[in-house]
TrEMBL record:
Catalytic activity: Endohydrolysis of (1->4)-beta-D-xylosidic linkages in xylans
Class in the EC hierarchy, top level: hydrolase
Sequence similarity: Belongs to the glycosyl hydrolase 10 (cellulase F) family.
Pfam family of the protein (one): Glyco_hydro_10
Protein name per UniProt: Beta-xylanase
Gene3D superfamilies named in the record: Glycosidases (3.20.20.80)
Protein source organism: Paeniroseomonas aquatica
SUPFAM superfamilies: (Trans)glycosidases (SSF51445)
PROSITE patterns per record: GH10_2 (PS51760), TAT (PS51318)
Regions crossing the membrane: none
Amino acid sequence: AEGLAGLARATGCTFGTAVDSLRLAADAGYAGQVTAEAQLLVPEWEAKWAALQPQPGVFDFGPLSAVAGFAQAHGRQLRGHTLVWHTGMPPWLLDGIAEGPARARALLTAHLDAVLPATRPAIRDWDVVNEAIANPEGNPFTARTPAVGDLRDTPWLRALGPGYVELAFRLARERDRSLRLTYNDYGLEGGTPWAEEKRQRVLRLLRRLLEAQVPVDALGLQAHLLMDEPFRPELLAGFLRTVREMGLAVLVTELDVREGRQLPAGLAGRDALVAERVKAVVGTALEQGCRTVLTWGLSDKDSWLTRDPDVMRKDGESHRGLPLDAEGNRKPMWQALAQCFAAR
Ligand code: G3I
């Protein structure tokens, strides 16, 4: 039957997912799921600094080209993730930017000088800066991060000061005026005071950037949802309304669901709760003008949730936070997404 790509397109939306070049090449079932369900692809790791510039001045576009080749062969679109982030910074880069702001600026400029021309016209939309906002205190699931004001204390912040966010967006826009430039972050969907504070920090950052005429076009909500966290639609709706009133587009960029510590008995119960949460969050985003929804993978068997020690379940169960189960069958979460697009 029609995949999510077609259902989304029929209502003026775009559905997609993160893909891994190694799985695309090695697993026909995986590639088949991608072509059946996804219109927009985002490389899970191939467009990050560690993959693109593993050594100073040494660029490796191989893995990203594999994803781009797959997308082109199947008439799919590609988005870029991510140019500036504090994770996956090669040691040489950490050393380099620590030499001081002039060196840090030169290294960032050289990266964008190489990556942006090399990836056009395949990539028209980039997560320019990822996760620059510090996590507030008080979330049992996400550690508070050291902060300088609202900003996460990262090597980029230490090297260039708070202006690194503005610099990254300006350098990207100078190199390609047609790119859509996105600020991407997580923990922005929940109904807790923690999430409310993080949303306020994001709004302060976006306002500062826009008041300084920094070329930001969109906000990416990663939407790595936590079932243990309450959801209050009116809080997310109000936040997204404010972001839209600032003239920004909104995307859901990395949707998946981490289930609670107390799982209900049985898969049906778990899948139903996940589907209900996805429908509420994605439905709210679409109501507030979001037109692009990406999940962070399609099948539970490929999810970072089942391999990253920070998030995988400790009870031997695996999360069921993606639209397809480990055998590739569509789950209630798949139906929830289909209903969200149909309801538009
Ligand atoms: O970089 C190597 C590459 O050189 C090598 O050829 C390849 C072979 O498998 O592995 C690559 O390494 C790992 C890569 O995943 C591919 O599996 C990296 O060591 C590993 O750190 C990387 O993990 C990714 C992680 O981001 C860090 O980049 C996860 O797959 C990916 O799911 C995760 O995604 C992040 C988003 O970017 C931001 N939001 C949170 C999300 C989950 O953490």
